[in-house]
Amino acid sequence: MTISAIFLTNFVVFLVFLNGSDGNIGNCDLSTPPPSWLSTNATGILDWATAGQPTNGSNFCVQGSHDDHTFHVAYHIDLGGIDTGEEVKKYVDHDYRLGSSQNGCVNNNTRIVYCFALCLNDTLQNMVIESALKSNQVSFVAQDIQKTTQLDWAITVMQVDYNDPNTHLNASAFLVADAYCSVYIGIKPKLGFDYLYEIQLGKILKD
Ligand SMILES: *[C@@H]1O[C@H](CO)[C@@H](O)[C@H](O)[C@H]1NC(C)=O
Ligand SMILES: *[C@@H]1O[C@H](CO)[C@@H](O)[C@H](O)[C@H]1NC(C)=O
Ligand SMILES: *[C@@H]1O[C@H](CO)[C@@H](O)[C@H](O)[C@H]1NC(C)=O
Ligand SMILES: *[C@@H]1O[C@H](CO)[C@@H](O)[C@H](O)[C@H]1NC(C)=O
Ligand SMILES: *[C@@H]1O[C@H](CO)[C@@H](O)[C@H](O)[C@H]1NC(C)=O
């Protein structure tokens, strides 16, 4: 199976303002101030890994099921005291069926069959992509991003099932260079099956 043949048909991103975000993901209460929460709710997630920060607190939480391929993650982002949460927050709906735009990222490695980034820091974006190119193992990639960036941010790597028509990611994002970065990337390895990751890095408030 190759990503390009099977699922590069259509990609839709909706950017709208998100009106508040309550609810809970694990120990994270998304109504806790300041209102700088980001979250992702997804179906079609085969595996995931985190690095950089523990997930047992109340500012970075994950909740997932390997049986039904659902996954949720929440980040209480540290915007440096500037309470612009509602103004910079964007809601992004990744319809997993990807478009012909192909590689929209800063790294032009020919093994990248699809890439879409919400990451204003090009240096950081490139480091994330270099880590993704190294392995089809989510835990390796998460650790490698932490090791190469040396950031004390929360890092999540999700492996997305590009064969499942029900795969869907709802993710909110801040377009703030020093607090958030995400990269959605499909890779054709030299050997083995193609793989698709949603990778997110956020500078979070400490418990
Ligand atoms: C994503 O959001 C849409 C619209 O609110 C909703 O219908 C859908 O169930 C959500 N998907 C997931 C995986 O949470
Ligand atoms: C989370 O786990 C770490 C390491 O196991 C521990 O040191 C820390 O106290 C825990 N934090 C909470 C909020 O439970
Ligand atoms: C890749 O990007 C670099 C730097 O932007 C550029 O010099 C190079 O020509 C590009 N390679 C290809 C194959 O597009
Ligand atoms: C994800 O689910 C939580 C809990 O229901 C909700 O508060 C949050 O708004 C959702 N996030 C997105 C991006 O849809
Ligand atoms: C961009 O990311 C790099 C790598 O983490 C970092 O050294 C640099 O300071 C960042 N720049 C900004 C503007 O945040």
What does this structure look like?
This protein has 207 residues and is an alpha+beta fold. It has one domain (3-202). 16% of the residues lie in helices and 37% in strands. It has four helices and 13 strands. It has helices at residues 3-7, 85-88, 122-134, 138-149, and strands spanning 15-16, 24-25, 28-29, 37-43, 45-51, 60-65, 70-76, 89-95, 112-118, 154-160, 168-174, 180-187, 195-202. It has a six-stranded antiparallel beta sheet with strand order 1-8-11-4-7-6. A five-stranded antiparallel beta sheet has the order 5-10-13-12-9, covered by helices on one side. A two-stranded antiparallel sheet has the order 2-3. Helix 3 (122-134) runs antiparallel to helix 4. The longest helix is centred in the middle third of the chain and has 13 residues, at 122-134. It is globular. 42% of the residues are buried. The structure holds 2-acetamido-2-deoxy-beta-D-glucopyranose (5 copies). One 2-acetamido-2-deoxy-beta-D-glucopyranose is lined by residues 21-23, 25, 30, 39, 41, 91, 170-172. One 2-acetamido-2-deoxy-beta-D-glucopyranose binds at residues 54, 56-57, 207. This is DOMON domain-containing protein. Residues 1-23 form the signal peptide.
List keywords for this structure.
binds 2-acetamido-2-deoxy-beta-D-glucopyranose, 16% helix, 4 helices, globular, 207 residues, 37% strand, six-stranded antiparallel β-sheet, alpha+beta, five-stranded antiparallel β-sheet
